[in-house]
Amino acid sequence: MAQHGFPRAVLATAFATMIAFMGIGVVDPILAEIGREMGATDAQVEMLFTSYIAVMSLAMLISGVLSTRLGGRRTMLLGLGVVVVFATLSGLSNSVGALATARGFWGLGNALFTSTALVIIVGLSTGGTARAITLYEAALGLGISAGPLLGGLLGSFSWRFPFFGTATLMLLALLATYFTVHEPERKEKPRTARDIFQALGHRDVLTNALAGLGYSYAFFTILTYSPIYLSLPPLDLGFTYFGWGILVALSSVVIVNYLRPRVGPLRLLQVNILIFAVLMLALALVRGVLPVLVLIVVSGLFCGIANALFTTMAIEVSPFSRSISSGTYNFLRWAGAAVAPVLSGFLAQTVSPQLPFTIAAAILVAATVLLTVRQRSLAQALEAEAAVYEGASSD
Question: Taking the CB of residue 300, how many other CB atoms lie within 10 A of it?
Fold first, then answer.
């Protein structure tokens, strides 16, 4: 197995990653149901995402640092254990406030796991950084696609069941990690939170992270606001976002690997984000459930490509260690994701239901402009990384 770049420990970590990211989308189909049962507004219900992702973003400042002190395996196990506990408490909550609090701690556990999981997958794989990140993004895409389906199936019985189902799956992921994952032979020296902020001072790292922030805002506008905008039954929403997530996984594994060597990572990312912006603008303009459903599902193709390219670039343009590079990128990436749900809910209530899509389109255009302004420096960093990898491979 190792000769193909994916030892058993890497595959087990990828499986756990898939389960972890199911927790993000599992709430999608049941948002409206939770709001109706608890008498909450759209903006209040969106806090279930914002609390989760905001804590996840802040925790990225310490998760990579913690992994260099406790070790990646222990940090992942700690994160998975926290998720099991608070996913269960989410299902037992009786108010939006209690549920949002439980989701916040769930986000803490997910941060401890996911940032470390990427480092473990890259560190234990032998097929190169891009190939290892492809596996990580495939697990992410499959998890995000399976989450809404699980939420829709179980949520058709009760909005509490998806949380209990996710807790059970996370327990399985914890056991798989415990019995199969080991520390990479090459360990990083202990880091501090100051290292994250020093990394943000690097222009290429900051550029990629800020563009990723803008992209993540749009990504989570699709994932968290559009279910409320559609207002369909849980099972229908589950199948919709399952189809969307399958395209996320497919494009992050197959399509991006076909296009990247032919187009180049930076140009591909710029064109991809612009097309995504056009789709978001179309969502603001079209009317009718079917056209909106089609646009949402098709957007999964461009989300998967962007996911893979941004994550790969976070490692490849950075001169810092993998844990610091991952933590820095994810800190800003999830910050954008945290703002999207609550701001979209507020704008929809106070101004127009279509405005969140227009705002997301504008932010995507701004991200493309930023990448274009800095493209020479980013391209040089990517070429230097490719040269280092080719030299290591020939040795």
Answer: 24
Count CA within 13 A, CB hemisphere, residue 376.
1
SS3 of 189, please? coil
Q: Can you tell me the mean pLDDT for 173-194? A: 74
Q: Taking the domains of the chain in order of start, what are their residue ranges?
A: 8-181+193-394
Task: Supply the Cα-derived Rg of the chain in whole angstroms.
Answer: 20
How far is CA 357 from each of CA 52, 190, 283, 361, rounded to the nearest angstrom?
22, 42, 6, 6
The model's pTM is 0.82
Task: Sort residue 287 into left (φ over 0), alpha (ψ -120 to 50) or beta.
Answer: beta
Q: Please indicate whether residue 357 or residue 25 has the higher confidence score (pLDDT).
A: 357
Residue 67 reports pLDDT greater than 60: yes
The CATH superfamily label for domain 8-181+193-394 reads MFS general substrate transporter like domains (1.20.1250.20)
Inter-residue contact 115 to 89 (CB < 8 Å): no
CA angle 301, 303, 309 (to 5 degrees): 105
Is the Cβ–Cβ distance between 313 and 382 less than 8 Å?
yes
Distance in angstroms (rounded) separating the CA atoms of residues 165 and 184: 31
Taking Cα atoms as reference points, which of 151, 290, 161, 292 lies closest to residue 234?
151
Residue found under tokens 């439980």:
102
Whole-angstrom Cα distance, residue 161 to residue 137? 27
Of 60, 219, 242, the C-alpha closest to 152 is: 242
248, 238 in Cβ contact below 8 A? no
Q: Which residues, in sequence order, are CB contacts of 168 under 8 Å at separation 6+? A: none
DSSP one-letter code for 95 = S
Q: Please say whether the beta carbons of 325 and 200 come within 8 A.
A: no
Record the tokens describing residue 227, joined without a space.
Answer: 């279910």
For residue 306, is pLDDT > 80?
yes
In this structure, the chain runs to a length of 395
CA 184, 180, 20, 113: dihedral to nearest 10 degrees? -30
Is 32 within 8 Å of 228 (Cβ atoms)? yes
